[in-house]
Amino acid sequence: MLFVFPFLILHFGFEDIQEENIKCTNSTRNKPIMVMEFWVGWFDTWGGKHIIKNAEDVEDTVSKFITSEISFNVYMFHGGTNFGFMNGATYFGKHRGVVTSYDYDAVLTEAGDYTEKYFKLRKLFGSVVAVHLPPLSKLSPKAEYPAVKPSLYLPLWDVLQYLNKPVTSHTPVNMESLPINNGNGQSYGLVLYETFICCGGSLHANVQDTAQVFLNEKNIGLLGDGIKKLNIPKIRECQLLRILVENQGRVNFSWKIQDQRKGLTGSVTIDNIPLNGFIIYSLEMTMSFFERLRSATWKPVRKNYSGPAFYLGTLKAGSSPKDTFLRLLVSELT
Q: Which of 228, 237, 319 is nearest to 272 (CA)?
């Protein structure tokens, strides 16, 4: 029987799980033993390779569980998807956002398809249980649709008028502490900070997680994990400094869990002089926000536009749409 619990009790890898659990059977007689999370795969992070666990290793370990009378929970048995802007992150010296797909190289794929692991475990279970296993369920129909090429776009600067009223603050406010959503702050998405500056110099800011920095609408660089300083060139007249920060997932374990504030955390300075007078826009990417964009005046896509923008395209799936996945390739527009 498979039990799924939303918390962790034991963590084992393929190498140590076999040895440690066999030892447990000798030292804890007459007590039930259960591995709460038997990892058959792992999640992927942005910038990393797709992680795959060997199906024969999984089969071998499960066989040892059975012969040693150890109960276990397969994690994950079925892959899944984090919807919207909800995801997690890891931190092993560097912050890495977990990809939206949580396929996990699981026993059943994110789409519900069977894998080599599934068939190996099914055969193994069939050899030890006294009843016949149920027949395989039919797979859901899937389709590959033509590529979607965006035809219209809206620069971020044109979108600001469709957001909720911005927050005015003497100093920067992190995403979670914004006085919005009945005092609950902002959870996901992006946040834009604006203030006027009248001189260049060394810009310093603590950013979680990655920020694009603009003078008016011109991108002048990035800030983020390990990049806290940026040189602002000399300017002849006051200009609008814009810092667009993306929340790329919160770490959900280790001591870093106490340090998961997104946006600008702390003061922003130029040559050690604090900047004040911020206008802060919350970009939560809620459905109500996208509904308001329906009334916006969208522009035909320009190949030479490189700033932040929303793009609009049409997926033609016919009258009976089937399951599919969206694959994001590097756009010819960038």
A: 228
Best CA proximity match to 88, nearest among 195, 235, 197, 187: 187
Q: What is the pTM of this model?
A: 0.84
Burial of 165 (0-12, 13-18, 19+ CB in 10 A): exposed
Integer Cα distance of 116 and 13 in angstroms? 19
Contact between 81 and 30 (Cβ < 8 Å): no
Cα Rg of the chain, angstroms: 25
- Distance separating the N- and C-terminal Cα atoms of the chain: 50
Judging by beta carbons within 10 Å of its beta carbon (0-12, 13-18, 19+), is residue 191 exposed, middle or buried? buried
Helices 116-128/55-67 angle, 10° precision:
20
pLDDT tens digits along 163-203: 999 999 999 999 999 999 999 999 999 999 999 999 999 99
Question: CB count, 10 Å around CB of 322?
Answer: 12
The number of beta carbons lying within 10 Å of the beta carbon of residue 270 is: 19
Q: Which residue, among 320, 326, 322, 300, has the nearest Cα to 311 in the 3D structure? A: 300
Q: How far apart are CA 38 and CA 25, in angstroms?
A: 17
